[in-house]
Amino acid sequence: MNILIINSGSSSIKYQLLEMPSAQVICAGMIERIGSTEAISTFKSQDYKIERICEIKNHKEGLERITALLLDSDKGVLNSTKEIDAIGHRVVHGGNALTETTLINNEVKNKIKLFSSLAPLHNPANLVGIEMAEKLFNSAKQIAVFDTAFHATVPVKAKKYAIPNKFYDDEGIQAYGFHGTSHKYVSKKASEYLRNKNAKLISIHLGNGCSITAVKNGKSIDHSMGFAPSNGLVMGSRSGDIDHAIIFYMINTLGYSLDEVNELLNKKSGMLGLTGFNDLRDIESEANKGNASCILALEMNAYRIKKYIGAYIAALNGLDAIIFTAGIGENSSLMRKLVCKDMDFFNIHLDDAKNDLKSSTIREVNAIETKVKILVIPTNEELEIANQVFALLT
Ligand code: ADP
Known about the structure:
There is one protein chain. The protein has helices spanning 59-71, 106-114, 123-136, 156-159, 165-169, 180-194, 244-252, 258-267, 270-275, 280-288, 292-316, 326-331, 333-340, 352-356, 381-393, and strands spanning 2-8, 13-19, 24-32, 36-45, 49-56, 86-91, 102-103, 141-146, 200-206, 210-216, 219-223, 321-325, 363-364, 373-376. By secondary structure, it is an alpha/beta fold.
């Protein structure tokens, strides 16, 4: 079965074509900077790598470009769009109605639209991707996989905010949790690795967006991101946890507009706001040169993660393993070191030599004698989506 995975973001579309169940990647690529005259389109198959800079006005043109690359008579991988059996769409917000991987119909599309108010940067772009794919690949089954779905198992005591009940009951205001596809994939891998499907796990996804999830018996029981993907850890450009009184102070006393504060907290805060750099590699290199704000930002980032680990050990009443994943979690030995430092009370002991080794497969970086495993697990959201699509259709 050929499954095309489409991850349609606000200004990018990532795609990957997989043969299932072998999980062989036939081709993969990305269109970045959609809406600009200098959009970047990449395509990589076993035989070819193509990168082009051209004008791509909108998502419609982006998906047309991807289709043309797949069908290219010289370097493409398909003779006809009919060779695609199914398309798996990553959809960020499924609200409290779409909590499982679902075949897309008009009702599902209407709900994704309805939940656009909860994820205004993501759901509209996801919907455009779905509607275009329906036109371009009209014989393929279209399936939605939701980022929020894995967290549908979080108990009410953990997901409800302490505000009047009507907001939870009537308005759907609750913590939804995100990065579910990644947390599900790596926690499943960890359970397999530990040969324990009832393992108590803390999954730490550190990419541009960062989140942490407590997993028990394969199910998410708590998550750091809340109503929107803005709560919790310090992220690339998002503040994470913040006292809401600061928002009112900025508006009422400092004279910022609502839109300005929204932009400030989502796009100008986090590591970018603290250091002037977004990319952790730059921050680490500046810290090495003695840049005080970069050193402090790294410490703040790690401190926040440590606090969540402590909270989730309490929620889980124990811990078998912590998992580091995504761009920073998989690659930054420094961030892992800062997080695991002085955590011996919890039986968390890092082995520095193992931590410094590079590898693209699952690995253990804890000291050999410790009870709690520290695992580095490369995430693969595309494969997880393909697995779920394949499972739904077979
Ligand atoms: P996204 O959330 O966009 O999928 P990624 O999971 O790709 O993000 O992670 C992006 C982050 O990973 C960036 O902040 C980048 O600096 C960081 N990163 C990637 N490689 C390294 C590395 N070798 N060392 C430190 N940080 C890294």
